[in-house]
Structures are given as structure tokens and as C-alpha cells.
Design goal:
heterodimer, A: Mth169, Chain: A, 2 helices, about 35% helix, about 30% strand, B: about 230 residues, alpha/beta, 9-stranded mixed beta sheet
């Protein structure tokens, strides 16, 4: 069974987000005075073959811990959906 | 002394390191491909060079830290062998968890490439025995992710264990925050592991090892390592 996992990786709050800061300044210059904060993260899409959604989630979590996320500065969330063949 | 330089896809300071060490030691320097399973026997010092391994994709050093040779590097360090990560090599060592912390983008939001002055904080490590206490030296830096980061409490513990070996300093040796070119916490430029045999350093001693390049303070690092090895460690 195929699953599509979307992993959103963001910097933990408290870790200075230089990229977010630069984007924030740029948007302010464009006149978005309502803007209060910007945090920039990244998205990883995985296509997985696993017997159950639970197993797919477990695999995705393992990949986050092993490589995709640096737990010292980043956190992540996984969304899962069935993928068509 | 026998030196091995690991070459990752995207390394670009590997030849600088090979040249500096071959010239200093008068011996050939081994170049080890990241996919190799082992280091040459009798390796005293492993250097992880600067560059942009794997294009800095995902996070700097992240993929290189998981490449096959790193198991051998880990074993070498575990057995007490010396490991020096310079610039991207430092980033790789933190990603491999051989050193604590991580390197975040510079506070300036820019790539910083210039000579900088550093103060040595310890002279009892294998890498700093030839320095005078608190000596200020000049090595160049060239990086975009050089802001050393650890949460406050862990940073205090790192300091208490004396793991900070180099700090960015003014030419007079002051380590005020203004002396840091990248906003690194507590001006940290280089740290060792608890055992002291693994050093990560953002500045480039291998680019300060030849009078043609204008700076020679990098030789102190190689002299320290040679002295350490000759001392029977």
C-alpha cells in the first residue's frame, strides 16, 4: 500500500530564524505593516510503500530522526494520506 | 605524522589541507573518498575539510555526516585518534554528533570571507600545545553558517567543561561580541569533544600555512599535532 507523507520542518521557537527575519524585513518594505512575524521552514514529501498507515508513519518518523530533522534546533509534523498507484 | 583528508562530493578545501599538511610533514597525505569503508591504517589525524558537501542540501553537513566513511571516523575518534573538522568539516562533526551544538546562518545574513583574529583558550589539547596561553592568531574565515548554537544551559556546561578552544577576538585579545564576525554565541570559533581529541573549527588554519598566502599562524596547529604525536600520545 502506498502512502504519501508530508513532513513540515520548522525551527524551534527561540532559535533565531535568519531567513524568516530577512523575509519579514522584505515584506515590511513592500508595505505589509500588519505583519508581525515570519518563520521559514521546509517541506519534504515522501512516497512510501507500507502495509498500514501506522507503519508508514513510523517509517517517516524514523527518517526524520535519522536525517531529515536536527532535533537540537528543529521540530516537525507529519501528515499522511493514501496515495494512488 | 600520518594524515588522511576525507573528500566528500562538494568539498573544496581538501586540496588546501592536503597541500598544507604534505608541505608541513614532508610526507604524502592520504585522500579518502567519502564512500570508502575505512581509513588508511596508521592514520594519526583525520581532516574533514571545508566546502559545500552535498551542496549544503537539507542542512550543512547533514548528508556527509551519514556517509560510509564516517563510521570509520567515529571509530578512529573512539579509539583516541585525532579528528579535525574545518568549516564544513565542523558542521559535519556536529551533524555526526561527534561534537555538540550546530552552526546556524551568520547573524549578518551574509557569506563572510575575510581574515579574522582568534584567541586560543586552551593550550593543553592535542591541537593547541604549540600556542602560548591566550595567544591571538589570525586565520581566514569563509562561511555562511558559522554561528555556533547550543541552548543556554548546555552552552554553560560546555564552557564549564572547558570545551571552547578558540574564540573570535579583537587583535588585542578582547572577546567582546563585536569581535565576532558572524554572531556566534560567546564568540565561539572552535570546540573540542570532552576527551579533547576531536576539534571543530570554523576558521581555516590550512589557508594560513604558507607565507605566499600572507598568514602562517595555521602552522601552530600542525606543530601542536606533531608534538602531541611525538610525545607518544
Amino acid at each position: 500500500m502506498r502512502h504519501r507523507a508530508e513532513i513540515v520542518v520548522t525551527l524551534k521557537s527561540g532559535v533565531l530564524d535568519i531567513q524568516g527575519k530577512a523575509v519579514f524585513q522584505s515584506l515590511q518594505q513592500l508595505g505589509y505593516g500588519e505583519l508581525e512575524d515570519v518563520r521559514v521552514g521546509k517541506v519534504v514529501h515522501l512516497l512510501l510503500d507500507a502495509p498500514t498507515p501506522e507503519k508508514a508513519r513510523e517509517l517517516a518518523r524514523g527518517m526524520c530522526e535519522d536525517l531529515l530533522v536536527n532535533g537540537l534546533i528543529e521540530e516537525y509534523r507529519i501528515s499522511l494520506e493514501a496515495a494512488e498507484r | 605524522m600520518n594524515v588522511s583528508v576525507v573528500v566528500f562530493p562538494g568539498s573544496n578545501c581538501d586540496q588546501d589541507a592536503v597541500r598544507a599538511l604534505a608541505s608541513f610533514s614532508g610526507r604524502p597525505v592520504a585522500q579518502v573518498w567519502h564512500g570508502d569503508p575505512a581509513l588508511p591504517a596508521a592514520t594519526d589525524l583525520v581532516i574533514l575539510p571545508g566546502g559545500f558537501s552535498y551542496g549544503d542540501y537539507l542542512r550543512t553537513g547533514a548528508m556527509a555526516a551519514r556517509s560510509p566513511i564516517m563510521e570509520a571516523v567515529r571509530r578512529h575518534a573512539y579509539e583516541g585518534g585525532l579528528v579535525l573538522g574545518i568549516c564544513n568539516g565542523f558542521q559535519i562533526l556536529t551533524e555526526a554528533r561527534l561534537l555538540p551544538g550546530t552552526l546556524l546562518p551568520n547573524k549578518t545574513l551574509t557569506f563572510v570571507c575575510k581574515p579574522c583574529t582568534l584567541r586560543v583558550e586552551r593550550t593543553d589539547t592535542p591541537f593547541t600545545g604549540a600556542f602560548r596561553p591566550n595567544q591571538v592568531v589570525q586565520f581566514p574565515i569563509a562561511h555562511h553558517e558559522g554561528l555556533f548554537y547550543l541552548p543556554e544551559k548546555e552552552l554553560d556546561e560546555l564552557e564549564q567543561r572547558g570545551q571552547v578552544v578558540f574564540r573570535y577576538a579583537s587583535p588585542e585579545g578582547s572577546v567582546a561580541p563585536e569581535a565576532s564576525p558572524n554572531g556566534s554565541l560567546r564568540n565561539i570559533a572552535g570546540i573540542v569533544n570532552e576527551r579533547g581529541n576531536v576539534l571543530g573549527l570554523m576558521p581555516h588554519p590550512e589557508r594560513a600555512s604558507d607565507p605566499v598566502l600572507g598568514e602562517r599562524d595555521g602552522l601552530l596547529v600542525w606543530q601542536s599535532v606533531a608534538g602531541w604525536i611525538e610525545g607518544g600520545h
